[in-house]
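Sample A.
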Amino acid sequence: MTLLPLLFTNLRRKSRAYLAYFVSTSFVVMVYFTFVMFIHHPDFNKEGTPTYFPVGLSASLTILTIFTFLFLWFSMNSFLRMRKKELGILTIMGISRIQFYLMIILENIIILGIAVLAGIASGLLFSKAFLIFGSAILYLEELPFYFPLEAIKETISSFGIMLVLITIFMLITVRKSSIVDLLHGAHTHKKEPKSSILLSLLSATCLLIAYGNVFLLKNDTFAVITWMIPAIILTCIGTYFFFSQLSIYLLKLAKRWLSFYWRGTRLLWLSDLAYRVKENAMMFFMVTIVSTTSFTAAGSISSAVQLMESTAQTYPFSMQYQYFSDSTSPEKAARDLGIIEGKLNELHLDYQQVQVVSTYLPEMKHLEIISLSDYNKAALMLGLPLLPDIQNGDAILLDVRANSTDTDYSKISATIRGEPFHLTRKTNQLILSSLTYALIINNHDLEKLKRPTDKKVIYYGYVVPAWDQATDKVPIKHIGNELKKQLGLDAYSPSLQVRDAFNQEMKEQLNATLLIGLMITVVFYVCAASFLYFRLYGDLERDKYHYRTIYKMGMSLEELNKSLTVEIALLFFAPFLMAILHTSVALFALQKLYSGLAEFSIFTVSLICILGFFILQLIYFLVVRARFIQHVKRHLLM
């Protein structure tokens, strides 16, 4: 038999082991190809298309490329480990080193090549559906189908480079293996797993520091972002040494608990579990980190939906213009107002305008002062309840910040510029998006407090009852962008805020994030599931002989089922539970990050996402367990 027929025969006989790898790799290629197809779509260069979507796709593509390389490297290493014995026998039979290397190279080319072609074909098959879905998500006109030649070339070249690098690494690994090592394959004698007390303590310390600091952090955005990178590094170090050291140490402690250890099948699966955990520590670590990334991303994206909804409610007026008295002249402000109102008149839109003047006092940090008459004018135009008259020396606190506390303000007094004020109540009724913390007093008291040098903020709120009529002529977002250009403002300037334009842009960005995040999360989860499958079936041959020996010694089929179920369950759910723990801490930190922006719990929506992943994991576990036990039993009865 020549080299190629031998190669194809081996692939055909190992089709069961290669099937999961082929399906998961094809899926990764399909997602990769779809990303590239979107990035190179001609319509993304047209005016009006969000620029952040191609940028987001490119960033996601970089992450996906790195992870795909690690996935392929791990998968092919697993297959090489399973086939070491076969390669050793072929070497004894006289195969040359050149033929030996050529066989590995051709096998990689055939498997990955077919997976790439299948992934591209699947991407082309569903490309029109992706384009329709992407257009709807981004509120664009339907993106037409085009033949993505550039995307095909880029996908093939990217995976070709990965194939070359992985093949080189595999040849280096095989080159260092002797014939004896190849013949032993996965059945080499294994020493009893050992653990280091110092490294076990390091694992526990890293995790405790990472978790503890997250819980001790204040509700401060800067503090959370500053601690984020160190927490991730400590969590990764702690997780790796947890599986490679601390878990082995805990298993040894469990064996010393004789009343627990010497009961039922625990003697069998606890003894074998220590070897499995030690041997699969790197795989457990990778699955945990990947799963944590998937769960956290799903929870973050889901919570962003609530954040957008709560943020959209912070714009009470259809349009808001503001300027500072110390940086903008009244003449320029009048010109700007003329441009804004001219645009509304050009679109034949009726509108109402209200002016609110806010005064900053240098001695009052972050606190503005407005008159009761200005507040009630704005509230009346918005259809909100009016505040009652305020007596001289009394004040009402306006505090609409997300993390403000419900204090009894009726007992608080303050002295402002020598004048005593008594806080009678608090209101959290928003009238202007930028006015979130202010003191409301009557006009008489305000005149006594004002000085010519005080800094003022002049707000103009516009209510446009028939604003939606403009969407048939010019998109709201374009109106906002056009007005900012005419006023000489950048796109993110707070001087002019167009509520519907902001909401539309927020929806586009959020939906783009949802689309990208969903695809990345699914890919990560599929790869994590594949890692478990490859690791489990990589040990299948060894487990067949192992359990056949124990079965001959008198172990019943019921005990065999129980022992295998426990071992497979720990293999599947130990990294999963650790990932849930990491995700809970990450979401707690994210809750602190959101505390200054909006008041809602991200755990509710995140819990739904995690439950969804758990159901998928449970179904996957039940299917793999049934097939694995079936293979082992078939070997027992031979």
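Sample B.
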Amino acid sequence: MSRYALYLASVLLALLSAALAPLERAWWWGVAGFGLLALAGTLDLLQRRSTLRRNYPILAHFRYGLESIGPEMRQYFIEPDTAEVPFSRQQRALVYQRAKSVNDTRPFGTLHDVYGTDYEWINHSLRPAAIESHDFRIPVGAGRAQPYAASVFNISAMSFGALSPAAIRALNRGAALGGFYHDTGEGSISPYHREHGGDLVWEIGSGYFGCRDPDGSFSEARFTEAARDPQVKMVEVKLSQGAKPGHGGVLPAAKVSAEIAATRGVPMGRDCVSPAAHSAFSTPRELLLFVDRLRTLSGGKPAGFKLAIGHPWEWFGIARAMHETGVLPDFIVVDGAEGGTGAAPAEFIDHVGMPMHEGLLLVHNTLVGLNLRERIRLAAAGRIISGFDIARTIALGADWCNAARGFMFALGCIQARSCHTDRCPSGVATQDPRRWRGLDVADKGQRVHRFHQNTLRALRDLLGAAGLRHPQELGPEHILRRVSPTEVRSLAALYRFLEPGELLRGVPDEPVFRQYWEESSAEAFAPPPRVLALRASRSL
């Protein structure tokens, strides 16, 4: 109730002032002042566009006032101990503008230092292209019984349980309106995912939620029943995620509501454990056979896996298994360590996993080197917000991009960083109905849709300015980066891109391939002999 304390106090003081005003004229000032506050709070409660104002009547305006002053006041009063506040503020401002279809043009040039290192841009053409549609599609699972045409921009994995029922409803409503997909996260398919009928990619994690037997093992029967629902368009095995790769997780028993228990297929009153590793497979070869099994059980829908790149030899083992067995996933999603909206230990957030650009490039190069890239679609996720972010990621090798953070901003997330406390002020990351009921699904679903559409329009305009007609025409030569005050390089010059079939002809002259490729194995995720030998020498 403390959220409503100022509002209730204003109402009571306005009434008290009105009662005393006939006795003492000075109380009319109290009627005016407290009455205006009470009116503002009442309007906050009745409006449906801002969840924050509905959950924090009157108080929310103090935050907006501080935010309007600028990033310096924001850093001290709103998001303390944050090194990236100005950047985050710009990100959110862009998403809010596009989610509300507010004009996002601005005067007086770029906000970036164009002479500083790491500044990036896309070169334009003197012969711009006119592109009619911004609905760019990537076919996935060609030749399968139920192929899918994916948008180049989709909602990344966020589970029911981590997000509120209202947030899941709004995300899926936006996906249905825009014809793009909504990744369920490993928390399985809840009734809230089904309410608006938006396309789903069902993520299967190590807990096999929604398709598990009572002992936590994978259940073919339960998977088949759910995966054959027409709303499920693709199936994705989650090996690891950007927020906390290799960590697993526990949802405490107190947070396992009846709805979450029913959705995940776990008992109430007990901790819901998501193990760090899968039990359905233990080698690269077994992983691919499991993916193929899911494809068959789903009725021929595209199936793939998601991973944050860690030990290179483990990824190489998977690639070798593809080459040796001919069993291929329809798609691979590379999750960057810089991404992840879920709460995780500080060390995992800051120092575990490979950043998206390096991970994406390694996966892309390996598939190209094995002549497999044309047969496997590649997606990427990791702090993707703008049309330029999408263009740069596709130029490095992706076919499409997923985003979590941007779509959370579209829902009204203010990065209060209280996701793990169940006290999310915007109703996005909480299971407290007193908080999430303030999130208007119809309004926020429209904002999710508009953010997606306006971002793709921006991508279309970037492509047209560069003289291109589709994102698949983008290459690393189109993106430029200033690497020093006096030197500019294209991504094609900065990174080594393998030639088709190069890995079949020998080991490329690249450190990561020289060190780990030849000793990687399709039969185990274990370290190669060279790594074990180095460990042994250090222990002597």
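B remarks: DSSP finds 22 helices and 15 strands in the chain. The CA atoms of residues 174 and 449 lie 4 Å apart.
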